[in-house]
Amino acid sequence: MGATIIDGKAFAAKVRGQVAEHVARLKAAHGLTPGLAVVLVGEDPASEVYVRSKGKQTVEAGMASFEHRLAADTSEADLLALIDRLNADPQVHGILVQLPLPKHLNAELVINRIDPAKDVDGFHISNVGLLGTGQKSMVPCTPLGCLMMLRDLHGRLAGMEAVVVGRSNIVGKPMAQLLLGDSCTVTIAHSRTKDLGAVCRRADILVAAVGRPGMIPGDWVKPGATVIDVGINRVEKAGKQVLVGDVDFDSCAKVAGAITPVPGGVGPMTIACLLANTLTAACRANGLNEPEGLTA
After folding, report:
1. pLDDT per residue over 26-71, tens digit each?
2. What is the dihedral of CA 110, 117, 210, 227, to 10 degrees?
3. Which of 58, 119, 195, 208 could form a disulfide linkage to 65, CB 3.0–4.6 angstroms apart?
């Protein structure tokens, strides 16, 4: 029997639908429209596509979308001044500065200038600390999407052994914190882990977030385990550029109980969770109940 394929595209559509329903209720009951401001500096092609998609899905969910496109040579002072204005704007509940930034800009300084309550990417050092200490925070979108899919698949995660391969601040570390919060036994592994295959084979939940195409083969997967593949890598196959994950899908799918494909797995959940985070931020800012099932 092959693994169950976790359809991230369908799940993301469900999440967006839940967000849209909650937004409609906020408008009707409180006259409140959640607003998301996205800041793009420069003309990185991939970022352009991503920002356009964010704007489209924000509007489709009934939210207000504010886009700020700045020249690649924008000064740090001007960018920080824009963030200050967005922090002070009551119509803006979420602020996202699209990464990567041009090299002359200090990304850490810029991210940490965002009001933590409006930091819908969950990258501000205050949100990192709150998540790490088990307190209410804004949670990075990709790990939040992974957690939602795992909860939907398994219900309770308590007592399961989870291995996260990758230690980035954007995915690996927050993913481990979220799994700990759901009472998993968590190991963070990486490229220098001794006998990485043996560590992976212990996992009931295996999250791959290393950015190396096909790094994890099927014989590293515990039979029946759930494999969440966060990797998005462009490789050439038969003369064409294709997207592949961090796990070797064909071999892993023969062993796993459930697996996310690439594309169509974790990827679509990132923007869906960005919308969910913006909704959550709007509710918190106005002292309203947070949407059930859309936060960590």
Report:
1. 999 999 999 999 999 998 888 888 888 899 999 999 999 999 999 9
2. -160
3. 58
Sign of the dihedral defined by the CA atoms of residues 48, 50, 54, 60, in that order? positive
Taken as a whole, the chain contains a residue count of 296
The pTM of the whole model exceeds 0.85: yes
Radius of gyration of the chain (CA): 19
Catalytic site positions: 54, 98, 121
Among 62, 104, 64, residue whose Cα is nearest residue 86: 64
Q: What is the 3-state secondary structure (H, E, C) of 115-132?
A: CHHHECCCCCHHHHHHHH
Report the alpha-carbon distance of residue 246 to residue 230 in Å, rounded. 7
Omega within 30 of 0 (cis) for the link into 100: yes
Strands 205-208 and 161-165: parallel
Distance CA 117, CA 122 (A): 9
State pLDDT tens for residues 66-78.
Answer: 999 999 999 999 9
